Amino acid sequence: MQFFGTIFSLLAFAALSFGRTETNNSNIKVLLIAGSSGWGNYRHQADISHAYQVLRKRNIPAGNIVTMMYDDIATNPQNPFQGKIFNHPSLKDDVYGGVQIDYKGNDITEKNFLCAMSGDKECVKGVGTGRVLESGHDDDVFVYYADHGGDSILGLPTGEVIHRQKLIATLKHMHANNRYKKLVLYIEACESGSMSVGLPNDINIFVATASNAEESSWATYCDNKSGLPCLGDEFSVNWIEDSCAHTCKDYTIDQQVSTVKKETKKSHVSEFGCMDIGSQRISDFEGESKKEGEIERTPVFDTADYISVESTDAEMYYATKQMKIATSMKERFMHLTSVVNLNNQKKINSQVVEGVLANLHLTKGDVQNLMPPMYSNESDTCHSLVMSKIGECCDGLGNNAYLMRSSKTFYAICTTQIGTSQIMKAIEMVCKH
């Protein structure tokens, strides 16, 4: 009788297991990072928060997701929906509630990002939650970044920007130390295509970027009726909403990127690295929902039906719009002040670039003749040092979208016969004045 009882139990268990559609996705490790701060950059934390919610609904365990976000939007004094963030004009879903943030505020640094991605616990000991990607050779890794950028750099709210050469070096280190089976990286930033220069195509990494190496990425849902800044970025909302729409197990990375390319009207979504990964299912990196069709699709609002603006102009667009519709002198003055400050920042940034060129006896035409710049290890080193110096002199670089767009100019200068030390001295001369 005991034998038949055991057989019956095993059959019952098998039947239950066969009927399940649940999967634990335990071999997927995720890192999400919003690289900006400030009310005008609302959309970056909205993108990251929405991505977190979608990945959780696709059944990736919260313990497998590391999140880096300044966290100054949901409770920002300017937020009319306190404690909430929206990534869609319907304002149907608060994407902030339930997001577990591991690194906040001034903990969002290049060092902490690279350490968290590479699984270096000792490096971030005592910082935030101290959590890192605990990935190994059998794990698929998904990394998603959203913020401003420039040639070979990605913005951060404090300290150093993320330099391309350091990012590539970290990815190579991860490959050499068996920190993943396959890795997919999505980058939302201006000129983000430049971040893959020097990435080998044989280390099982696939990168999709919002733009090529020459152009801006675009903010979208900017003319929402809620008095909020741009709610999302075009590339980001397109891939996130696509992941909501496609829970089919067989839907691939190639299919997602193809869809996002078609829907992203303002910039050229680009692909780099190991193209074979494109044939992998998105569920291998973004999770597989517990039940087919369980994720409710976001109401369809084609981004083409909404005003989109270049990422560098998103804050100006919002401040100008709010100034025009303000109902009180106090509100109008607040937004007017923002417009004035942004214009002053643009003016100062132009003066810095022009001053450095003048000190080096270069003209804009000279620099233009060097475009697009020829990348090399030597120029990479020069550029990294130069942009760090620019950040020191200009009260931070990583949250200055206008100045980051000048990164290509400084890279071009680094390709000349002018020595790095001479360029650094020119920057110091401009800063003194």
Structure explained in plain terms:
- This is Legumain.
- It comes from Rhabditophanes sp. KR3021.
- The protein has about 425 residues and is of the alpha/beta class.
- It has two domains: about 30-310, Rossmann fold (3-Layer(aba) Sandwich); about 325-430, Topoisomerase I, Chain A, domain 4 (Orthogonal Bundle), CATH 1.10.132.
- About 40% of the residues lie in helices and about 10% in strands.
- It contains 14 helices and twelve strands.
- Helix 2 (about 40-55) packs parallel to helix 5 (about 235-245) and helix 11 (about 375-395) packs parallel to helix 14.
- The protein is globular.
- Residues about 1-20 have low confidence and may be disordered.
Rounded mean pLDDT is 91
User: Which structural class should the secondary elements be placed in?
Assistant: alpha/beta
- CATH topology name of the largest domain: Rossmann fold
Q: What would you call the shape?
A: globular
**Main β-sheet: number of strands, strand sense, barrel status?**
6 strands, mixed
- Number of domains in the coordinates? 2
The total of helices stands at 14
Q: What fraction of residues sit in β-strands?
A: 5-15%
Series of H and E elements: HEHEHEEEEHEEEEHHEHEHHHHHHH
Q: How widely separated are the two ends? A: 93 Å
Rg, alpha carbons:
23 Å
Kindly state the number of beta strands. 12
Q: Based on the structure given, which CATH architecture of the largest domain is correct?
A: 3-Layer(aba) Sandwich
Task: Give the neighbour order of strands across the main sheet.
Answer: 2-1-3-7-8-11
